[in-house]
Specification:
By secondary structure, this protein is mostly helical. The protein is about 65% helix and about 5% strand.
Length: about 575
């Protein structure tokens, strides 16, 4: 269940797009419906996003550092603002003040979301209507909205169906064969069928048949998770999976099932073969299980963990301890198996921080940083978490020290940028910059610390030192860097840029792919610009004549050249 404080988030969708880039942002939009356990507390936002594994995400936004995000997925662990960070950011924007979801480039007022009761004009209006007026309204709206009409028809069928008929209806909707097909349309239809099944279960709840809804939701979760696990790519199922989990929880809250069998189902389901892809969190079932059910579930999970300490068993035991609210027991469980990269220390720090024990939390984070030392695989989220707390406390020198260690042990453009931000906050960037560049040049010469000399090129480009980057690129730069260098020095070093463009053009001439043709056109435009800058347009004309002769059999490419006046 989401937990939020009454705040306005200090970032927008545009900020998320800038932090992630267009590709990760677009992918993150698909995951926004899968965000689970959203926790918004001050400037920190935490949640999990299920995938082939469940990834933990934390976003932090401050005036000093701006929007930063950390995720323990492979891409996020390298310091990137990944699609899971985007998903959590979007989910947070949708649950907080309406102005926070507003684009930075959109000056128009934003209407409040209809899910905010305090600002919702529809509910009071509906409550003011009598029975006949409500009935007339439903008939009118369902006649003009086929989807609404279908949902109402389905609810009517459920209200008149017996238990066996409802069971057969749900099973028919969730038959796995359709989703196994390769076609996107077939998968989309299956997702619609899952939504229909959730509507059936909600109708049972509305009709007071809550025990049937509990049983039906459990079967549906089993079936859907099985389909998810067997599919090669089932991202479309994230949202309906979450929807079914919400229906099951709602049914349990209404039915008040026996805590003992509910505990057995919960533990069995989460430790079973499909538990890893089902976004069920024992913490959300705290009220359903009660003290007796929680104790029983913890006993079962602990027994399973002792018999076979799999990751699933460890995680379930930890979540049940979290549900019980025993922070010290949870910390002790985490401390039994501290990861050398500091990831477990971060979990402990987060739990203590949420419990209002900020000093102990930071001490655990600092211990994790000391344990990880200069490991290249130190948990990046731990680094971000500790630095944010240092900045909040005004301990800027300590934040800088962490950033410096991280850059020296795991040189990357992201760690260099973080070092720069921290050093500027302390007013010490000039000396830190000189030391960082000296280290990069030294390692580029001797190969120290396993750092590629290509990093020096990226850093110098990021600093705007194009000529220095060009000198450092000799014999080291990859195609991406060469293209960037050529584009940025085309005006003041056209001869060097021309050489790069011609070098990149050569291999593309062998390809017959459309994207290669598009890249050829882009390169030729740049080559023409270089010749114009050099005052040699005739040489470009001769080059194009020879190129057209050489590639005359590639008709699609020739058509592209014609349409671009090349």
């Amino acid at each position: 269940m989401a937990r939020t404080t009454s705040i306005q988030l200090d970032f927008t969708e545009a900020d998320l797009r800038r932090a992630a880039g267009q590709t990760s942002f677009s992918r993150g939009e698909d995951y926004a419906g899968a965000v689970h356990g959203l926790d918004i507390d001050g400037t920190a936002i935490r949640a999990t996003v299920p995938g082939r594994e469940t990834y933990r995400v934390e976003l932090v936004v401050t005036h000093r550092t701006g929007l930063t995000g950390s995720c323990d997925c492979p891409y996020g662990a390298d310091g990137h603002f990944c699609k899971h960070c985007v998903a959590v950011g979007l989910a947070a924007l949708r649950q907080t003040a309406p102005l926070s979801a507003r684009s930075a480039d959109d000056p128009t007022p934003v209407s409040p979301p209809p899910s905010l009761p305090a600002q919702d004009p529809v509910t009071p209006w509906l409550e003011s209507l009598d029975r006949d007026a409500l009935l007339a309204l439903l008939i009118e709206e369902s006649a003009s909205d086929s989807a609404l009409g279908d949902r109402l028809l389905l609810r009517a069928r459920v209200a008149q169906a017996d238990r066996a008929e409802v069971r057969d209806l749900v099973k028919g909707l969730l038959a796995p064969g359709t989703f196994a097909d390769d076609g996107h349309a077939e998968r989309a239809l299956y997702v619609q069928d899952v939504a229909q099944a959730a509507t059936v279960l909600r109708a049972l709840i509305a009709a007071g048949r809550v025990a049937e809804a509990v049983d039906g939701a459990r079967w549906a979760l089993w079936r859907l998770a099985e389909v998810y696990e067997s599919a090669d790519d089932a991202d479309e199922l994230f949202t309906p999976l979450n929807d079914l989990v919400a229906v099951h929880l709602r049914a349990c809250e209404a039915a008040h099932p026996d805590p003992e069998p509910t505990a057995r189902w919960l533990v069995g389901h989460l430790l079973g073969p499909v538990g890893k892809v089902t976004p069920v969190d024992p913490v959300d079932y705290r009220g359903v299980l009660g003290p007796t059910g929680l104790t029983r579930a913890l006993d079962l999970a602990t027994e399973a963990w002792r018999n076979d300490p799999t990751d699933k068993a460890v995680h379930l035991r930890e979540r049940l301890l979290k549900a019980q609210g025993d922070v010290d027991a949870l910390v002790a469980a985490y401390a039994d198996d501290l990861a050398p990269d500091g990831a477990t220390h971060l979990r402990i720090a987060r739990e203590l921080d949420q419990a209002g024990r900020a000093r102990e939390a930071l001490e655990w984070a600092e211990q994790g940083l000391r344990t990880a030392g200069e490991r290249r695989d130190v948990d990046q989220q731990l680094v971000e978490w500790a630095c944010v707390r240092y900045v909040r406390a005004g301990r800027l020198d300590e934040a800088l020290a962490v950033r410096r260690t991280r850059f020296r042990s795991h040189g990357s453009l992201a760690s260099y940028r973080s070092l720069r931000t921290a050093a500027r906050a302390c007013g010490r960037w000039e000396e830190e910059r000189a030391a960082a560049l000296e280290l990069l040049r030294d390692n580029g010469t001797r190969g120290g610390l396993g750092r590629s000399p290509r990093l020096l090129v990226d850093v110098l480009l990021d600093e705007g030192e194009v000529d220095a980057a060009w000198e450092a690129a000799a014999g080291h730069a990859d195609e991406r860097q060469l293209r960037t260098l050529a584009d940025r020095m085309r005006d003041h070093r056209p001869a060097d840029a021309l050489g790069v463009y011609l070098r990149l053009l050569g291999p593309l001439k062998q390809s017959t792919k459309d994207e290669a043709y598009q890249e050829i056109v882009r390169l030729l435009r740049s080559i023409r610009a270089c010749h114009q800058r050099l005052g040699t347009p005739d040489e470009f004309s001769r080059h194009m004549t020879a190129l057209r002769t050489e590639l005359k059999r590639k008709r699609k490419l020739i058509q592209l050249l014609d349409s671009n006046d090349l």
